[in-house]
Amino acid sequence: MNFKEMLAKDLDVFINPNEFGEEHTLDGETLLMIVSENKTEETNMTPKYQLAMENVFSKTYRLHFFDGIIQVPEEGDQVEFDNEKYLVLDSSVTEGIVSIEIFAHRS
How many domains does the structure of the chain reveal? Predict the structure, then answer.
């Protein structure tokens, strides 16, 4: 068994409900995925920018799920994640795992 085959076998360990996997909806499909949330840092904002962004919050998530379940969204696409609309910032497929970064402003 080579490294790629071992890696493919081990992916099931991480993306499962007993470890890190959680069910979420993406474009109407329920998928088992790993989700990490990134929060916008306000420490580097100028006072003018902070005033303009008052009461506006951004959400950025990185989603990881198995390839072949849905069509992989591309950068610039709009997706619906857990019933909220987001813009795809980045999208890639590596060794059978889709990774996408999505972003939205909320007020």
Answer: 1
